[in-house]
Design a protein that fits this description.
- This protein is mostly helical.
- It contains 6 helices and no strands.
- Helix 2 packs across helix 4 and helix 2 runs parallel beside helix 5.
- About 6% of the residues have low confidence.
């Protein structure tokens, strides 16, 4: 069934026969490989409504009919596009190979950047090693000074 058939079925000029319209919808939906559940979700209706439409038990309004056909036609078009690619796996492989080359270039750039950063880290580690004793002396002095200030405050509060 072609998209032209879908357009003919959807024509607002023709009278709507719920049974044949529903059967056609069912056939096209299956060819488009869309489940009843997916179609129902796409148009915001329940599975029960879709099954009733496809069986011809429910007459549908133009808005719902258009929404159903739009959803099915979209999926059918996607399927035809997938199937019309002569070598989809080969094209994917070519893209994958290109991606590997790009990843290799990126990997090289990252390796260079890591080497640059490592070269900067070595001198900084040396400076840090030189500063650690001074830092420890300052911490010790600050703790002693803080302790002295606390003791003085406690003595001052006790005298009051």
């Amino acid at each position: 069934m072609s998209l032209d058939t879908i357009a003919r079925v959807r024509s607002d000029d023709e009278p709507i026969d719920p049974t044949s319209d529903g059967r056609t919808l069912h056939e096209v939906r299956r060819r488009a490989e869309i489940s009843v559940e997916d179609l129902a979700a796409a148009v915001g209706k329940s599975v029960f409504v879709i099954k009733n439409v496809e069986s011809g038990r429910t007459r549908i309004r133009t808005e719902l009919r258009d929404a159903l056909w739009d959803a099915v036609a979209c999926k059918l078009e996607q399927k035809y596009q997938r199937e019309s690619q002569p070598f989809p796996r080969l094209e994917a492989l070519v893209r994958l190979c290109q991606s590997k080359e790009e990843l290799a270039r990126e990997n090289t750039m990252l390796a260079q950047r890591i080497a640059e950063l490592e070269a900067r880290v070595v001198p900084l580690e040396g400076e840090l090693a030189e500063l650690r004793p001074t830092l420890e002396r300052l911490r010790k002095a600050a703790a002693e000074e803080g302790g002295r200030i606390l003791a003085e405050n406690e003595e001052g509060e006790g005298a009051r």
